[in-house]
Structure to design on (625 residues):
């Protein structure tokens, strides 16, 4: 369900790392509570609000810390806390070793600190540097606070609070914010931002969660926005991302870094950064590769034939399948049965795995009474955490649908951990594997498949539902007893929504994504026709119409946005004019000019008696001249 630009992996984002952040907060909160209890039994003592600068750093606007004897029992506990706070914002490799007054006087004890005054923290062996530190200070609201003030800020991850934190992060890193905390777009901002998929690794226990995120002008006009998008993407629901590093260990402090050479980023909450964080475990490397998977193809008229994109997901299923597993009802493979809610257990025998995705495993199952086989999709709710709405939408949409070219939902059962969908079984695998096996299809075969796909799309569109993830992996193939393809059915409605107004959510799968999604001007039903056009193109020649020579996602998007549709020889030399005309009309960049699903079905090439012996070259060149 989730092989797409924004959702891949994100539905299952773990929250453990941020929970660390949160549990730190909780510890601090309980300390605060303890303090409050103590304060009730003692005369209240006002905290000294003291500001600390970084020695020699004229850009760091300082941090205000409320200094209370109950909080800091020794001078060392203050320097330790200062170290913790400052390392988030400035370079301080050895931690805070010495505190100076603004005049350079060494401070040796807590009592020397005066309320409302500022001080300078230096590291090991650093001489005091005299600077106009207070000139870099800005309005007190923008300071990063440590202690009770920041606790209230951190405990609740409301967007406004998250924004405040982001402002502080930015400020601490030298980025500009306006007085109200809104980041100003850097002068370069407009120029640097272009649609780009980056890989985000959420810091934590290895193997860590790896997510894909599309950055673009809509979600990343500023560094602050980009950080908020990352927070959202990795589901940092106990706060916001405070630090981001590239894989080479460089702190990201400017927006353009997200669009430079490196495309893997490590996101942190409050926790420390360690050198080992930047080393990927095998599983993580695999996930990063998966995130980067884009077609490695060429569009030139000469040179080697382009290749198909890498298939999304399914590896585990195939491995499991290849490792054995009998037909439905084989006791040896009935491992999923205990998971089943009673009504399903009574009714079905569960058999081998026939497919899997990022969030679900699909098994064959058999009705004990009728012996009819079905597909049982077992959705792991833990993997969908934070993205439950996708699953709910999938079921809601599927319940509404009844079409011969759409996989039907027979029944569903819920449990606290799993969602079970009994679906019509389509046993020929998916179209991706068929394309891989056949390389390309004859025109009558392509006509049959596109006819089935388009009639499913036309039906969906008649209900104002857009699928948004049409791709060969989501098209299940019906095969005859001789193994030949008889048709296909559309599956996986995880991204499907009803469209009543232009949509803006960037989603889909890179190879099949329509230009209007990338342009973020708002899109509608026609994106499904675009994706079907890409599939028709692939069926006819064996490779996708838009790709990048080196698998670079940005170049792929550039190719899609440039919309330069080519039919390179020799691969297209023998394809009929009608097929090319249909492809060209399905892949028109302007949605208003692009064919609707009904137009596709009405096209001359779709007629069973279409004569394929037209001269493509003559026809196409005339048309384009
Ligand atoms: N009704 C079905 N009949 C036969 N096989 C099916 C059926 N539904 C799904 N499958 C197989 O299971 C695989 C995974 O299913 P599906 O794509 O719905 O899972 P998912 O977790 O939602 O995937 P994704 O990672 O794409 O979001 C499919 O690619 C397909 O091979």
């Amino acid at each position: 369900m989730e092989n797409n630009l924004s959702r891949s992996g994100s539905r299952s984002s773990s929250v453990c790392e941020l929970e660390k952040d949160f549990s730190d907060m909780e510890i601090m909160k309980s300390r605060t509570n303890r303090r409050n209890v103590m304060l009730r039994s003692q005369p209240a003592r006002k905290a000294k609000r003291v500001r600390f600068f970084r020695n020699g750093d004229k850009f760091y606007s300082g941090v205000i810390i409320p200094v209370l004897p109950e909080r800091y029992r020794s001078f060392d506990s203050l320097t330790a806390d200062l170290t913790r706070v400052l390392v988030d914002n400035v370079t301080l490799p050895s931690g805070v070793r010495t505190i100076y007054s603004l005049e350079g006087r060494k401070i040796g004890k807590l009592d020397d600190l005066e309320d409302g005054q500022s001080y300078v923290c230096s590291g090991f062996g650093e001489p005091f540097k005299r600077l106009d530190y207070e000139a870099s200070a800005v309005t007190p609201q923008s300071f990063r606070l440590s202690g009770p003030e920041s606790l209230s800020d951190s405990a609740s991850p409301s967007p406004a609070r998250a924004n405040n934190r982001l402002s502080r992060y930015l400020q601490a890193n030298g980025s500009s914010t306006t007085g109200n905390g809104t980041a100003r777009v850097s002068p370069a901002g407009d120029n640097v931002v272009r649609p780009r998929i980056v890989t985000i690794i959420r810091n934590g226990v290895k193997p860590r969660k790896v997510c894909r995120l599309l950055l673009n002008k809509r979600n990343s006009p500023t560094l602050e926005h980009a950080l908020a998008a990352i927070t959202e993407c990795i589901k940092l629901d106990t706060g916001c991302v405070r630090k981001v590093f590239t894989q080479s260990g460089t702190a990201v402090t400017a927006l353009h870094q997200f669009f430079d050479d490196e495309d893997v980023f490590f996101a942190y909450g409050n926790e420390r950064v360690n050198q080992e964080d930047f080393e990927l475990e095998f599983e993580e490397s695999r996930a990063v590769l998966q995130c980067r998977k884009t077609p490695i193809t060429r569009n030139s008229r000469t040179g080697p034939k382009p290749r198909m994109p890498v298939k999304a997901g399914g590896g585990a299923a195939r491995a499991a399948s290849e490792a054995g597993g009998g037909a439905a009802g084989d006791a040896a493979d009935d491992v999923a049965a205990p998971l089943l809610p009673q009504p399903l257990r009574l009714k079905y025998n569960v058999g081998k795995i026939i497919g899997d995705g990022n969030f679900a495993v699909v098994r064959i199952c058999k009705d004990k009474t009728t012996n009819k086989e079905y597909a049982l999709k077992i959705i792991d709710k833990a993997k969908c955490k934070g993205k439950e709405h996708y699953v709910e939408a999938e079921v809601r949409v599927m319940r509404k649908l009844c079409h011969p070219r759409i996989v039907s939902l027979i029944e569903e059962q819920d449990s606290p951990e799993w969602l079970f969908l009994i679906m019509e079984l389509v046993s020929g695998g998916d179209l991706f594997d068929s394309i891989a096996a056949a390389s390309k299809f004859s025109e009558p075969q392509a006509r049959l498949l596109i006819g089935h796909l388009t009639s499913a799309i036309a039906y969906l569109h008649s209900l104002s539902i857009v699928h948004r993830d049409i791709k060969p992996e989501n098209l299940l193939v019906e095969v005859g007893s001789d193994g030949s393809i008889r048709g296909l059915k559309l599956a996986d409605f995880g991204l499907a929504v009803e469209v009543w107004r232009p949509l803006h959510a960037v989603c889909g799968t890179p190879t099949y994504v329509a230009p209007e999604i990338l342009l973020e001007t708002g899109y509608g039903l026609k994106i499904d026709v675009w994706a079907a056009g890409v599939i028709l193109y692939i069926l006819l020649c064996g490779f996708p119409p838009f790709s990048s020579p080196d698998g670079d996602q940005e170049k792929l998007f550039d190719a899609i946005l440039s919309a330069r549709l080519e039919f390179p020889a020799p691969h297209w030399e023998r394809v009929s004019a009608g097929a090319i005309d249909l492809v060209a009309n399905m892949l028109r960049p302007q949605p208003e000019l692009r064919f609707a699903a009904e137009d596709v079905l009405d096209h001359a090439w779709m007629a069973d008696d279409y004569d394929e012996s037209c001269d493509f070259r003559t026809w196409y060149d005339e048309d384009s001249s």
Summary: The chain has a mean pLDDT of 75. The domain at 430-606 is CATH 1.10.510.10 (Transferase(Phosphotransferase); domain 1). The pocket of adenosine-5'-triphosphate is lined by residues 1-3, 313-314, 354-360, 362, 375, 377, 407, 423-426, 430, 473, 476, 491-492, 494 (CB under 6 Å).
